[in-house]
User: Fold these one by one.
Assistant:
Number 1:
Amino acid sequence: MLQHTLGRLSRALLPAPVLAVVLAASLAAPVPARADVDDWPMLHAAVFQNRDIIEGDGVVIIDAPAQADDGALVPITVRVPPEVKGPLKSLTIVLDKNPVPVVAQLHFGPAAGEGGERRFSTRIRVDSFSHIRAVVETEDGKLHMTKGFIAAAGGCAAMNAKDPTAEAEGMGKMIVKTFPPALDSTPIWEGQVMLKHPNFSGYQINPNTGEMIEARFLEKMTVKRDGELVFTLDGTPSISANPYFRFTFGRGENNDLDVTMKDTDGTVFQAESKPSGS
Amino acid sequence: MTENTRNPRFAPLGPPLTRADVLKGMGALACLPLAQSWLVRPSAAATAPDAPEMAVEEIAPGVYVHHGRYELQSPENLGDMANTAFIVGDDAVAVIDTSGTAIAGKAFRERIREITDKPIRYVINTHMHPDHVLGNVAFKDDDPEFVAHKNMKAGLEVRAETYLASSERMMGKAAMEGTEIVLPTREISAKEVLDLGNRKLVLEPQPTAHTNNDLIITDEKTGTLFLGDLLFSKHIPTLDGSVLGWLPLIEKLHGRKAARVVPGHGPVSMDMPESLNDEQRYWTVVTDDIREIIADNGTLEEAVKSAGYSEKDKWKLFDVYHRRNVTAAFAELEWE
């Protein structure tokens, strides 16, 4: 089964479909992690087709807490320092020991910006002690990776809302914000997107029926600035409930952000931020 | 191809799990890898640990309370980290919370039996947390009604596996001997009265605050109010529900009269409303600090580093729980 799965994965290309394939494989044959096994070789093959990856060269940095305060809500920030020139092609975040190890994959567009520090922050579910990796593909097609280690406990149970009734009622509320830089001349702005959504992994139980709650999570997010693509994001249930993203984008004419999110049920959520008031 | 010998941690997507599977921990949703393969085992785990004393104090005629320790679960304390109580009526006994393991619950039951042999008709849980419910099993043979807020059954079921796994991780296998989840058999959805024989207990389910299943109990005879974890004293409050629900609830409780109040964690008998002041201050400071950070477009990471630290020296176990409290409160407040 695993052989077949990896065979399928190795034929997948890096852009968007790979995430769906990895995800499908994970959900179809969910084999959880043993702490003493190094999962990276398998993930390197499945997610990156064993391509060369340069590790720790400073092209990408990850801020993640060594000890998670709440395994279901672990904030991480990926940073690409200003010295790194040229547009980025993609960013992939991997949590080795998670049931769904690929956390998210971003593909950048012309409005992603450069000329300053580039950042992407989100909150993730960490199932147990694991390496976290951020892999960036630069313009020249090279892959660069940084890794950290997160100690977490109980990431699964806390996947469930503290007040399921309240959660269900608020679902679908979406907030988009933009933050201009201190200096007008800075070519990088920052945006933030939040969605009230349970992001069910498919591994939680409905206490009333004893059956598994069907997976329902953010599958795709598209962010545009003044109609130009900043990035698309392929999501997985390793992103925390009420998905939160903060990211840099390239300064434009109006800096109006338009964000569309789609979950696995096909439900679409959309919101915008118009700092220009246009 | 790399041979990847991962252990099954999830059931393959096949026939749905039943509640029985979940409660027996049949590995289906064992979100945590089980303890045996790699976690550091507490050295005391080899032989059966000594049961905690679970001493009780009669704080009012017929009302007995055990003072839980201000500690995290450990192999030595067997989960004795919350206050438990019992009330003796003419005909029957009601237990309020049962501590954090079967062994602790059993020891507590022995204290009850040293005082009365009246039938234990009710085991009431103030809320779902493991240090308040894992001793329920010690009372099964009394065939009581297990009474709780109507939301507790679902809340506990969904967390059962994780509570058992993390309790074992903290206390070791020997300490967890005999511990299993016992779900409520009687759900309280509105104010309800239980009679122990010339002794009425008034049960009132609360809106989401500490958890979404907080239940308070009043012993009419002595005017003793049991607030469960709606009241913390000395031990840092913890948030697993809604801080925006808890603060107004504290305001409301300020207006209540009671001869004495029993917190879920703290001295066994306290005064109303003064006992509420410390936790009210804590949550107010945390909320105010977080709101300021949010108004400044600050992040969760920033809040965890800086919100509420003026409270640091005022609470036991601050270093264990405060950051988690800030995380939970931030995730709630950012939607305001």
Number 2:
Amino acid sequence: MSKPADLDREPARASYLTDGTTVRSWLDTRDHKRVGLMFLVAVLGALFLGGMFAMVLRLSLLTPEGSFVGPTAYNRLFTLHGIVMIFLFLVPAIPSAFGNFMVPLMIGARDVAFPRLNLLGLYLYLIGAVLVLGAMIEGGTDTGWTFYAPYSTSTPSAVVPVLLGIFVVGCSSIVSGINFIVTIHTMRAPGLTWMRLPLFVWSIYGASIIQVIATPVLGLTVLLVAVDHAFHVGLFDPAVGGDPLLMQHLFWFYSHPAVYITILPAMGVVSEVVSGLSRKNSFGYKPIVYSTLGIAFVGFFTWGHHLFVSGQSTFDAGFFGVASMLVGVFTAIKVFTWIGTMYRGAIAFTTPYAYVCGFIFFLVFGGMTGIALATVSLDAHWHDTYFIVAHFHFVMVGAALMAFLAALHYWFPKMFGRAYPEGWGLVSTVLIILGFNATFIPQFLLGNAGMPRRYYSYPAELQALNVASTAGATLLGIGFLIIFVYLVVSLRHGERVPQNPWESRGFEWYTASPPLKENFEHLPTFSHAPHDYQEGHPHGR
Amino acid sequence: MAGDARLAHHFSSLSVQAHAARLGMWLFLGTEVLLFGGLFVGYAMYRTVYRAAFVACSHHLDRALGTVDTLVLITSSFTMALGLHLARGGRARQATAALGATLALGLAFLAVHGHEYAGDIAAGALPGRLYRAGVELPGAGIFYTLYYFMTGLHSLHVVFGLVLLGWLTRRTARGDFGAGWDTPLELGGLYWHLIDLVWIFLYPLLYLI
């Protein structure tokens, strides 16, 4: 990338944070960075709520007969925990917050293609969140986040507003997916060919394709369940001739790819951080790109592995099992590439790097148990037990959340122009990684011992492992509390940092930190790929 | 191109902006197809399971009215395309007339379909367990659930399309579109054709087979 003229001097113009300070200038903004930042605040709120629900669940599971909450409240809490964490945190977290902020910077654009739609996406998200959480006042719902019929169409709890909320959040997801695809197709600066795109942009592109293809089907499914619940028309109700399995197929056609909506952007963050903080070119650029597209494609042919014990032909089960294992191949390509990038790099072992190490461990562990679960005969034993719970928490929380935290720390100086305290950062990383293992490794053992998920009570001999899991969750909570405190303090009192504190050659660092209102004083042109540490750089730093 | 009020600040040229808008619209149409796609999958599955009931119920629908619906919508697609063509040629008044005709045909579609719904409801052809219109086969209620949901969702799209058309007709009458720039009209047309296209599949599935 040719050097923008404003690289060496203090930006004469106000940054995006200070250009307009009224409340209205934020709520009515068209700036992708402000929308991204507001999304970040919103998803952090969702993470806090979902985490609180989880803590209450873990406290209740301290004793075999349950404590603190009754069984009905317990059912509603695990449902809300799932819905908030998946639809309000994991799916939008990295794309809507960091993707919104970074993608235009990385491709040398002044904004996303449709800034007004982008803001609309934020408001749709908030409206959906209000609908989902507002249903708590009516008592919430107790179906689990999967809404399996016929229970979801007959439960007396407030399932309709929750479903409508998910529908609206889905619209937000579609809008942002379309926006990213169009932005990446049409707004790249001169010289930025597809094979020079930063890997984070590629991962957002892959996730957006899944968002656009899968989300409408989820929208339709939740609408059908809501209509069924409201008018008892019986599309999924066996009493009228409906088939509940159809609902499961439609639901997982979205909800399995949703895992890849979550994990692909997480992998993109890891690709950026590994190159930036190892000071090395990606060990393989094209393998990462093609495995991203491979996951986005194969991810659509794996949903049946949720239905191994629901009534599915042996042939289908075999097909979905093998297709699921193929995802493991693509993931392994990425893992080896990251490790190859790290090898003999000049590693800056900082907080984001520590989270990336956690990410790789959790992804491999979660991925390997996933391969085991894709084996039909093994799944028959583990299905609907805590083994599954531990598996998907390793992937969705372990891996995706580690990447989210890595992004939060790696890009904190970019977004706010200030540093976070490195020592406290590493302390909380250690707490979170240890706490996470302590929470979920016992759950693998519990599941293997036969403890079903979503149960309020359990046999007394399983108490020791449950106590261990709750202790781990507490450690996890303390880690998050520390992060929250030091990041909020750093917002105001953190040391001011230069434009590129990591000395990274990722494209997003070629603008001021925090960036100007329209990102660049002069639009850049590109002459090489990002993270070109080996090739020497005319403006080496 | 500097100073052109139609060019948003973050695009380098009007042609890039139009390209982006077109791509965005096509992606959106793709999501609409997938939204209906789930319903078509459901229809195919239940038709396989309850074949006899689906054939019998299909014969109970008013085929004449369904055919009128189809002709009305196809004609409206034609007048829509004609409107865009005329606007591009700079003939704003004729274009406005063609779009007005599209609006009228869209309203006619809704009226015919409303009439059909009224007849169905009067005959007791209601969805799910409420069904009591004579077809004594398992799955008749499911057919009507699908019928109401599919045509209802489609009619909802017609309503949105009409609101969009109203706005586009006003702008065309004001002479906003002409040679060189007609993106909103083109995209509105694409949406209207999609509504037509969905109906082209609904009509044989529900009325003919």
